[in-house]
Write a structure and sequence with these properties.
The chain has about 260 residues and is an alpha/beta fold. The chain has 9 helices and 9 strands. The strands form 2 sheets. Strands 3-2-1-4-5-6-9 form a 7-stranded parallel β-sheet, with helices on both faces. The protein has a two-stranded antiparallel sheet with strand order 7-8.
Length: about 260
């Protein structure tokens, strides 16, 4: 009989969570530990955040990792394998947005002028978003597959509703997440033969550090004339843990849209 949330679905499991220093990633780490994971390796680029949050917890092992660096990703995966002999769950939550572009969108909206971003989008802005969101996903998923192939496992990647409901003036972020979805769905079809399940959660607006950089003017959205609140990181983590658990053993290559009904696809 399958276990429900809070009943130890991950008893004894070994997991790795990228972007685990804050937001959705941190919520995933907490829930994995709460559901019995034996060890959770936490990767994030912000070292200070990791030390503050996980320094004294023997169940969590923190690593400073830039997911855009394939060698750094491979190194932490190799460490997990050497220490534990296996890796059961990988959750890839690391990602970036572009606060500068958000400000341009906000200013244009407030002034009632057309949003003129793409013509002025720099190579550096484009490359930063792609190198972390898309390349980083490739690095993490590739490395996870290498480690998991002998015994199988579950991979869950955080995508975005922006891949479907694109925000005017935010093409680089939308493109990066749409590419992440397509990449992961293609890989999911391949690796299921090795006992690896790969799925995605596509959150709508969620109360994270990234959301805190979104100007208030852009935050309010409506469904049927009713304001829709932002999701909490724990609500998204609930979705992630479902997909990573045996309760979703028949789910492969899914994109779970988690946006409180802002739109459907």
């Amino acid at each position: 009989m399958s276990r429900t949330a809070g009943q130890g679905r991950f008893e004894g499991a070994v997991a790795l969570v990228t972007g685990g220093g804050s937001g959705i990633g941190a919520a995933v780490v907490a829930q994995l530990v709460g559901e019995g994971a034996a060890r959770v390796y936490v990767a994030d680029i912000v070292v200070e955040t990791l030390r503050r949050r996980y320094g004294d917890d023997p169940t969590t092992i923190a690593h400073s990792v830039d997911v855009s660096d394939p060698k750094a990703v491979d190194a932490v995966m190799a460490e997990v394998l050497a220490a534990e002999g296996r890796l059961d769950v990988v959750v890839h939550a690391a990602g970036v947005d572009d606060p500068e572009s958000k400000k341009i969108i906000t200013d244009a909206t407030a002034a009632g002028t057309p949003i003129d971003l793409t013509a002025n989008l720099t190579d550096a802005q484009w490359r930063r978003v792609m190198s972390v969101n898309l390349d980083g996903t490739f690095h993490v998923v590739r490395s996870a597959v290498r480690v998991m192939k002998p015994k199988g496992g579950a991979i869950v990647v955080i995508g975005s509703s922006s891949a479907f409901d694109t925000l005017t003036g935010y093409p680089h972020y939308a493109a990066s997440k749409a590419a992440v979805h397509a990449f992961c769905q293609a890989v999911a079809k391949e690796v299921v033969a090795f006992g690896i399940r790969l799925n995605l959660v596509a959150p709508g607006p969620t109360e994270t550090g990234m959301a805190s950089r979104t100007p208030e003017e852009l935050k309010v959205q409506w469904v049927n004339n009713t304001p829709v609140p932002y999701a909490t990181p724990d609500e998204i983590a609930d979705n992630v843990l479902f997909l990573a658990s045996e309760q979703a053993r028949n789910v492969v290559g899914a994109v779970l849209l988690s946006n409180r009904g802002r739109f459907t696809v």
